[in-house]
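dude i think i finally got it to work??
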Amino acid sequence: MTEVVTEVRVPFTGDRAGTGPLTWGQRAIWHAIGRTVPNDHYFNLDRIVDLAPRTVPVDAALAALAALVARHEALRTRLGPDGGQVLVEDGVLDVRVVDGGDDPAAAAARARDLLAGTAFDYREEWPLRAALVTRDGAVSHLVLVLCHLATDGHGAEVLARDLRLLALRGNRGLRPPQTGPLDLAAEQQSPEGHRRGTAALSYWAEQFARIPATMFGAEVAPPRAPRYWTGRIVSTALGGAVDALAAQHGVSGSTVLLTAAGALAAAAGGHATTAVMPIVGNRFTTGHRDLVSTLSQDGLFVLDVDRPTFGALLRPGWQAALRGYRAAAYDPAGWDAMLADAAAARGQEVHPYCCFNDMRLIEGRPVRPATQLRALCRDTRFDFPATQERVACRYCLHVTVEGQALVVTLTADTAYLPPAAIEGQLRAIEELLVRAAGEDVPMSTLTGLL
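look at this
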């Protein structure tokens, strides 16, 4: 299909300019990007803003984009020549306007895939790529592709929310952000910031002295080409089971999923203790809640899984998750030093290479009776939607939502987790949690579920 595409240049003007060091979150993602080049487009974030049931004129949508870039300093910030961040006061953003024809939603998805398919030029390019999709000459969808150095998933949601409001009603009712990335960097470099970062790394050092050296330590098959495969399960039954268990045990749904993933990773590797690195949003203060920047960093979830049943793990899992979340903001240089010290002390590399990212901002729906969940498993879908050559991990689990279903993807190194094992892990999460919603599942059965 050939689509009519017009390029429009959109000027913007913000309130200030400046320079400063990267935030801890920016430095952490910059390290990850460096380990993933040339496949670093893997880290691009994207959002499609559906204006339905309304549409807006093209000029109004372009004005909303200009206002969005003026409002959020992260969108006017690029990597400086010295490795710091450079905030620019004004500039011009290139925007694609796409005629969506009879199916603007599909055109928006194609525009997103095109814009997200290449890595950003971190020093020269604005950290935002945008497209407008029209229907009968008016804008129905706005497409954002974002550089992860500028923001994380929560910040991307803030941008999508603000852009929708700006397009539909302008600035009315939108309070200006309380802080920006330069302010956050200064806060982290302060004496109080150093104190908090040091305390966080003390927790990591204590746990790295006792966790398994890694969760998946043995290559079990020749790596595939491409080496990293992504498996995906879409399950309404899983969503219902997570909600039921969260209500039964007084924990969050994210805790249920994190504990299940950690327990199954431990079962696969024969470990009595699980160590998983969840992505933590670090938005625990009011001033940071709607800040568009990269605040997210790795946390450390450590849990002894030697319990009689899975249900008995959930309250300790919740407490372990909270400990990990409290220690998820730190200087990446200090983290690297901690990693080196742990390796020297134990005589081998220590790193879980096991990650978890719950990207839902809202969780919890009406709880279904456990008796209904098994029947819903018939509707579960599984596939392998993607492969890639390089990811700096061995096991990366991501959680999103699709209507009433949970979407759980596992990107893994096929030398350690061949495709059959990737599918086995995902189906085992569903089976474990669906069963656990109606009965207490013995921990001794987890290996069999895999």
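The mean pLDDT is 93.
im so relieved honestly
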